[in-house]
Each structure stands twice: as C-alpha cells, then as structure tokens.
Design goal:
By secondary structure, the protein is an all-beta fold. The protein folds into 4 domains: 2-33 and 212-313; 38-209, Galactose-binding domain-like (Jelly Rolls, Sandwich), CATH 2.60.120.260; 319-486, Galactose-binding domain-like (Jelly Rolls, Sandwich); 514-590, Immunoglobulin-like (Sandwich).
C-alpha cells in the first residue's frame, strides 16, 4: 500500500498554477459488517445476589434494585426453568401503580442494535400490569420501550421476546431500564395485596459491537496559511466515482466502501503561491513515497501538510470534530483517541434526527425536539481528550425552530467528576444559524485526559419570544475543537453570526470568502461562500483570454450561486466595494 505525491508547475497567462496530484491506496474492511450479538449484561440469579451474572467487563459489577423496601426483604425463588434456576422476588407491591419498579443500570459503550429479554411472574395477589421504560443517564427522562407492556397471568411465567431498545440507547456510558407497575390490578383480577409477590429473572441485554465502516478519510491541514482561493479536489475510483472539493483546511471522506483497494486522486490549485508538500516526517520535497498501514477503524485517514509561503493568517489542527455527514453521533474527525467520541443529549426526545446544516443541502446537523421545561436541565454534551494540546479554540453552528430554545450557556468541566463552569452565555438569532468560529476555551481545559462541554438551555424563552414548546427543535453541527495557530503578520477580523463576547471571535480574514466550488448534477459550477460581512459584494468569472463570461451581484445574506459555463478553465475573482481590487482570485475547471 503506497501513496505517491508528485508536483508540477503550470504557467497560464503569467499566472502560476500549481497542480498537486497524489495517489493514496488503502485496504478497507467491508462496509456494513453485521457483528454477532453478545451479552452486554445479564442477571440469572444462580448465585442468589443482585449483582450481574455476565456481560461486558464494565457491567460485571452492576446490580438490580427496587424502588422501595419490601417488608419481606429481597428473596430468591424458583426461576422459569424450574428446580435449579432462580429469580429475584419481592412483596409489598400494593398501591404501587406508577411508583414501584425493578431497575437496572449498565453501559452500552461500543455497542448498537440492542435487544432486551427477560422472564417475569406474579403470585395471585401480586401485580398484573407492567411496562418497561428506559432513560439515558441518571438525569434522563423515562420513555417507554416500544411494545414492552405486559399483563402477567396468575402464577404463570411471562417469557418475553427480544424487545428492540431505541437507537438513542446505543453506545452510551449509562442506560437505565425499569419494569414499572401500570395499575393496581392483581394477577388474579383483584387488587394487589401486601403479601403479593413479583419475581423476575433471565434479564439479558444483547448488542452488536460497533464495527469499522468502509470509510476512507483524508485530512487537510495547513502551515503558515492557505490562499483563500486554494481548492483541494479529491476523487476516488468507485463506480460511479465520488468527488469532493475543499477550499483551505478541511476533510474529505468517502463512505459505503466494500472490501478492496482504492485510488484517491487529489488536485490542488492556487494563484501566486509556493506550495510545498510534506511527508509524514514533515520534510518538504516534491516527490515522496509513504506507506500506509492498518485498516478502516484504526488508521483510516492520512494527513498531508500543505504550506503556503506567500500567505499568512489563521490555521488550526483539529482535536475533535462533528459534522454529521454520516448521520450518526460519532465524531467525524480529530486525533485518534477522539475518533470514537459521541455527542449525547441529557434527555430522551420524541424526535432525534438529522436536518440540513448551515450550508443547506449536502450539509447536516443533529436535531432533537422536547426541549420544553428544560431550563438548566436539558443540554447537548460532548467529551474528548486534549492530552498534549494547549491554546484551544472552539467552533460550532446552532439554530432553533420557532418554539425551540433561544438561550444557552456554554459550560465545561474536567473529567466525569468535575464541576460545571459557565464560560459563555448567548442567545440564538431567531431561527437562523448562529455560527461561532474559534472561541477560546479556558486554559484549564488544556492537556487533559477528559474534557466535557455542554450547551445548557438557560431559559424557557423560545426563538420566537414565546415559551419553548414540546415540538420545538434545536439543531447543532460543525462542532470543532482545535489548536490555535495564529501566525505573526496574519490579520483576522470578527463578523456577523459570531457571538458578542468580550474578546474577538476569530474568523476569515477577508470580507467575503469562497468556501467550496464543485460541479453539480446539472453540470453547473456551484459556489458556497462564508457569510458576507458587509453588503456590496460581487463575483466575476473570466475565460483565459481575460474576457468576462459571468457576473453576479451578491446582496447581503446570499451565500451560494450557480454558474452555467462551457467546459474549460476559468479565472474567478471576488470584489467588495472597489470593482478594480479583487479580494480572492482562483482557477476553476471542468472537462
């Protein structure tokens, strides 16, 4: 498995155009491998105590408990398999509807596709009606497990099928289940009595190990800056081919790959720059060989360092990132120890899904409803390592629907046992995305094994000024924790969409910056810009003879447009106020 990087200089109309092409070859595991279910945790009570009898290592000390203290204490009776099998049992279920229950807590970290099975029985005067509920973490909200309601017969064992646990219980550090009484009717049709008993056994939660996906990711980082117009184009030789374009710093991912060997070709272009490519030992050279080892899930990405010697500005190295393009809660980039980290909610919403991000179609954000009555208790949360890193910056994009929450506090703590501290408070701008770029994290988050961040709902006021409603949603994306690398001589300025705080929020260093350009399904060039800071901006496109072939006036708030042009190479320029002074200049082309 080898990667070759070649560089060549092309001169077009006195413009220095660099094309950097390299080939990355990797072996990847088959996509969508279905792992065999394993026991996450189980109780069979053969040793007649409350401690788990099997499961993954972190669950072997977990216990089953009651929500009350029975007069006869907890005992162990014959199980559903007859002599030699056991079940945990208790009396005093009288007047227990909605309040009395069995409860277990366990970890599902690293597992998905969870199922639950159990056996349960009541005596004649024991409770008849139960349902199973779950919640995430001790502060979560109880929700019903779909289909898991039962009416127990008089002295008859109920042996459950495998109930599917909801997807938001997957890959969690703490999940609770409870079997709660739903009426005071006894198994014999009367009323539950003090002496009536209920017993339960053969509790088994199974899950599938989250296996590596067929994904290849190539990360792009920069040295002393990258020309604003520098475009990185990636193409992988699937059928049909997948392609991605990135301006400046970014990440390209190719998903849904079956087992096999793939070739990724990158073309890098820029104006009036001196671009050098560095190998894994960071020694600049024009042609290098790099051997890539490992497989998807361990070393499934390769970073190549591009340094622009003519331009200075702000750059960063990502510690962890979530962009939700693959529509799951797992991190989409960062250092190896953070690639399995997840974003979680403190409660169980009715809707937990993915909507468009701030870039519109093709970008994604994680979203949830049920934020009502959530002031100071409902929040998004991430946890990650900053070991060996300091001078940390934090970016994200967030918005709410009309009746979603408006006000939030940004909080952090060090380790699971730390104390939450607020370092920023802010309000969302109506139903528009709030884009926060490179907010400085407190210095005590530097070089830590475990840092937690959360977006804590701070009031019951909705984005439209009313009260937060149960159907109101909040979505979040482009969460990036990075190492700040502001180079001397670089200038960056704050702009709209940033949070109003004491120090500047560092963002782009020009009034209007092109972010991405690609050829869409209609064979048109499609452009996306970072939001304009001021009005009076426009874009002009020229052919190689210098003739203007396209022009668009971009009023404030317009972030994208399409240009229908014949095949060829074109020069793009962006302007603000002065039509004779361009802010950006870069080449685009299509076959």
């Amino acid at each position: 498995m080898r990667k070759t990087l070649l560089m060549k200089n092309l001169y077009i109309k006195n413009i220095l155009f660099f094309a950097v092409i390299f080939i990355i070859t990797m072996f990847v595991l088959p996509a969508n491998i279905s792992a065999a279910p394993v026991d996450i945790v189980k109780w069979n009570f053969l040793d007649q105590n409350q401690i788990a009898d099997g499961g993954i290592t972190e669950n072997l000390s977990k216990t089953i408990n009651l929500s009350y203290t029975p007069s006869g204490g907890i005992t162990y009776s014959e199980g559903s398999g007859g002599s030699g099998t056991f079940a945990i049992s208790a009396n005093n279920w009288n007047s227990g509807s909605g309040t009395k229950y069995w409860e277990v807590e366990f970890s599902t970290q690293g597992y998905n596709n969870l199922t639950l099975a159990f056996s349960q029985r009541s005596s004649g005067t024991g409770p008849r009606d139960f349902k199973v509920q779950y919640k995430i973490g001790s502060g979560g909200t109880w929700s019903d497990v779909p289909g898991a309601s039962m009416a127990l017969g008089n002295g008859i064992w109920f042996n459950s099928t495998n109930y599917n646990l909801p997807a938001d219980s997957y890959n969690r550090s703490s999940v609770y289940l409870r079997w709660i009484m739903t009426s005071n009717t006894s198994a014999n049709g009367g009323t539950v009595a003090t002496a009536g008993t209920n017993r339960i056994t053969n509790i088994v939660v199974k899950g599938e190990l989250i296996t590596p996906k067929g994904v290849i990711t190539v990360n792009k980082s920069v040295g002393s800056g990258v020309s604003p117009g520098q475009v990185f184009s990636f193409e992988i030789n699937t059928s049909p081919a997948q392609s991605v374009q990135i301006t400046g710093v970014g990440t390209a991912s190719f998903t849904g790959l079956a087992a096999g060997t793939y070739t990724i070709t990158e073309t890098t272009s820029g104006f009036n720059t001196q671009v050098s490519a560095d190998n894994s030992t960071w020694t600049p050279q024009n042609s290098i060989d790099v051997t890539i080892t490992g497989s998807v899930g361990s070393e499934d990405s390769k970073s190549v360092y591009f340094k622009n010697d003519k331009d200075s500005g702000a750059s960063s190295s990502k510690i962890v990132e979530w962009n939700f393009l693959d529509e799951n809660q797992t991190a989409d980039g960062g250092v190896p120890e953070n690639l399995s980290k997840t974003i979680t909610l403190s409660f169980s919403p009715a809707i937990f899904t993915y909507y468009n991000g701030p870039g519109g179609s093709g970008t994604r954000a994680i979203a949830a409803d049920s934020w009502n009555n959530g002031a100071d208790s409902k929040y998004w949360e991430v946890e990650f390592s900053t070991k060996d890193h300091s001078d940390l910056m934090f970016s994200f994009s967030q918005r709410s629907s009309d009746t979603g929450p408006r006000d939030f506090n940004l909080q952090y703590k060090i380790g699971a046992g730390g104390t939450w501290s607020t370092f920023r408070s802010y309000s969302l701008p109506g139903t528009d995305f709030l884009n926060v770029f490179n907010l400085a994290l407190p210095s005590d988050t530097y070089n830590q094994e475990s840092v937690y961040l959360r977006w804590l709902m701070a009031s019951e006021t909705a984005a439209d000024g009313r009260n937060v409603g149960p159907l109101g949603t909040n979505r979040i994306t482009n969460i990036i924790v990075s190492v700040n690398e502001i180079e001397e001589g670089g200038e960056v300025t704050p702009g709209p969409g940033s949070v109003e705080i004491e120090e500047p929020v560092w963002i782009r260093n020009v009034p209007m910056t092109c972010w991405q350009v690609w050829i869409n399904r209609d064979n048109k060039f499609e452009f996306i810009f970072w939001w304009e800071y001021k009005d009076n901006n426009w874009v002009k496109i020229y052919d190689l003879s210098g003739k203007e072939v396209f022009k668009i006036d971009m009023p404030y708030g317009n972030a994208r447009f399409e240009a229908s042009l014949p095949d060829g190479i074109y020069n793009v320029k962006t302007f603000h106020d002065d039509p004779n002074v361009s802010l950006q200049e870069f080449l685009i082309s299509k076959p």
